[in-house]
Design brief:
about 375 residues; mainly alpha; 15 helices; globular
């Protein structure tokens, strides 16, 4: 319950206005699996959050790069105006539900004596708090916000990188990010810090997924690309180094398995993401079949934000009334995942969608009035 979690972002439409149905479907599967992991305390021993974190960072990088690079090539607007439109879209999607949730915790903290470290969460710095404090207890019911914090930190920088460099240079930067991400993990392992929470939450730990999303947005992979060959060369060096370590230090090799997995999980993520991005339409029968999962994907931001706070609230009520005890397990998963889905649907219907629509409409009218 205190470990890794995911941040489901907003898929949004493609550049041609189409929905990426399989992206939403995979998001729905991922958020369901993460709720299962957390509500059952990893009962199956499969930490899908490891893959899910990389998948969602990859999604974010893909859509940010594709949206801004596409707008940059289609319009003659100043970079500031393109960036402004992007930030309005992002703020209108995340801020209303995010700060509404934190407002609840602020009221609880003012009414009682519990400290939720809200100053970190209000500033989207949960990942930094976890690394600085060396614990997931920041507290546990808000620790999952670290992935959202990491994404928002990405959004502060990456749009300006996309606006400021040429396309071919962007591809080189993306490959460099992947290599730096792997090197960061190796350096932490060499320093004996790989088992600490900060090994997952510092931004460089997700550079590889960021770089992957950028490459996919730019239309890679392509045959014969030197940058990709360099990246694959580094990928081949990892098992070679691991084999040498196994021969020289078998005890150290066992400890290195998590490092090898964290580096190589990028490849299944790449395969899933590439497939999801290329399948934009499907038959009506398939659409009906995957409809419920796609819906979960579209409300996954609310599901992600609410699932641990809801568990905490329900447990508090149960402890005080003696009516129930919500220990990790299948019954808790069944009850709380249903409640989380209902709450996320209500949030989407009455908070997220109307507020986002109002903000974007107002921004569009302002842009129209400012146009010459």
């Amino acid at each position: 319950m205190h470990g890794h979690s995911i941040m489901p972002g907003n898929t949004g439409p493609g550049s041609d206005g189409s929905r990426y149905l399989m992206v939403d479907a995979l998001r729905g599967i991922a958020i369901t699996a993460v709720l299962f992991d957390h509500y059952t305390d990893y009962m199956l021993g499969l930490r899908v959050g490891d893959l899910a974190v990389s998948y969602f960072i990859c999604l974010s990088a893909y859509f940010v790069t594709r949206s801004i690079a596409g707008e940059k090539s289609r319009t003659t607007d100043e970079p500031f105006r393109i960036a402004r439109r992007f930030y309005i879209r992002r703020i209108s999607r995340v801020f209303p539900v995010y700060y509404t949730m934190l407002l609840f915790f602020l009221i609880v903290s003012l009414a009682g004596s519990e400290d939720f470290n809200l100053e970190w969460h209000l500033l989207f710095a949960t990942n930094i708090a976890i690394a600085a404090m060396g614990t997931w207890e920041v507290p546990w019911q808000l620790c999952h916000l670290w992935t959202l914090s990491l994404q928002e930190q990405l959004y502060l920088v990456w749009p300006f990188v996309v606006l400021g460099v040429r396309r071919q240079d962007l591809a080189r930067i993306a490959v460099a990010l992947i290599v730096v991400g792997w090197a960061f993990r190796v350096a932490l392992f060499a320093a004996g810090l790989y088992a600490t929470p900060g090994s997952a939450t510092w931004p460089p730990a997700m550079f590889d997924a960021l770089g992957l999303g950028v490459l996919l947005a730019l239309g890679y992979p392509r045959r014969g690309d030197r940058g990709l060959r360099a990246m694959l060369g580094c990928a081949m060096a990892l098992p070679a180094g691991f084999a040498a370590l196994s021969a020289l230090r078998p005890d150290a090799a066992a400890a290195a398995y998590p490092l090898l997995w964290d580096c190589y999980r990028l490849f299944p993520v790449a395969a899933l993401a590439y497939w999801a991005f290329t399948v934009k339409t499907c038959s009506p029968a398939v659409e009906r079949l995957i409809g419920p999962v796609v819906l979960l994907g579209r409300i996954s931001l609310g599901m992600y934000l609410f699932h641990l706070p809801l568990w905490w609230v329900a447990s508090k009520v149960g402890d005080r009334t003696g009516w129930w005890s919500l220990e990790a397990g299948l019954p808790t998963f069944a009850i709380l995942s249903t409640a989380t889905t209902v709450l996320a649907l209500l949030s989407w219907r009455y908070l997220e969608r109307p507020v986002s629509h109002a903000i974007r409409s107002r921004s569009s009218r302002a842009d129209a009035n400012a146009s010459p």
